[in-house]
Every structure is written in structure tokens, then in C-alpha cells.
Amino acid sequence: NTATNRATGLQSLCKSCQKASSKKHYCENKKYYKEYSKSYRKENKELIRFYSAKRRAVKLQATPVWANMEKIKEIYENCPEGYHVDHIIPLQGETVCGFHVETNLQYLTAEENLKKSNTYQ
């Protein structure tokens, strides 16, 4: 159980201990989280559809006319099992925004990609 000091913003656990605690909690309550996720998606179809459409629109706007769409399609089709196609320079980054082109795509494990989020490293 963690507590955060509101004045300092400090927590009673270090980051690695907090991560371990969260992982343990998730594993112990996996069924609950799966059911919650399923019901959330069911109850918020329009919201999820909106964000999916927004993501597609951003990708379209970030695709220049000179992009090799066949190569991009090939990269997505050849993505290895357990990997994600990631934009090296994110389409909606805080400091920089990239293009949806074949040279800006890479394969990352699902864990690495989710950890990276919208950052440019």
C-alpha cells in the first residue's frame, strides 16, 4: 500500500517496488481487470470509435504524398508475432512530430512500444 505526501509529491515506495506491487495486484485481480475492460469497451463504443478515428486521421495527415504506401503496407504485414510497428519519431510527440513513412517505422516488442509511448528516444 503506497501513500503520497501531497506537499512533496514523494511516495513511500521506490519506483521498482511500486512497479512490483502493481504487477502483483494486477496478477491477483486479472479476471476483474479483463471484465472491467470488456464492459468499458461495450459501454463506451462511441468514445473508442472517436479516438480510433482521430488516430487514423492523424496518421493520414502525417502521410506525405511521396510516402511509399506499398512499403508501409509490407512493413505492417510482416510484423513478427508479439511485436508492434512503432513510429521512431512519434506522429503526435510533445517535442517533435514525425511522418507516417517507411523510414520512420520500426518493430518493437509490445512491452517496449507501450513503455516508449509518444516519446522520441
What are the SSEs and their pairings?
Layout: H1 15-28, H2 30-43, H3 45-61, H4 69-77, E1 83-87, E2 105-109, H5 110-116
Antiparallel strand pairs: 1-2
The number of helical runs is: 5
Name the quaternary structure: single chain
Report the portion of residues in β strands.
Answer: 5-15%
Output the strand order for the largest sheet.
1-2
First CA to last CA: what distance?
A: 32 Å
Helicity range of the residues? 40-55%
Low-confidence stretches: none
Query: Overall pLDDT, averaged?
Result: 87
What does this structure look like?
The chain is mostly helical and 121 residues long. Helix content is 50%, strand content 8%. The protein contains five helices and two strands, in the order H-H-H-H-E-E-H. It has helices spanning 15-28, 30-43, 45-61, 69-77, 110-116, and strands spanning 83-87, 105-109. Strands 1-2 form a two-stranded antiparallel sheet. The longest helix is centred in the middle third of the chain and has 17 residues, at 45-61. The protein is extended and about 50 Å long.
Keywords:
single chain, 121 residues, mainly alpha, two-stranded antiparallel sheet
Condensed summary:
With 121 residues, the protein is mainly alpha-helical. The chain contains 5 helices and 2 strands, in the order H-H-H-H-E-E-H. The relative contact order is 0.09.
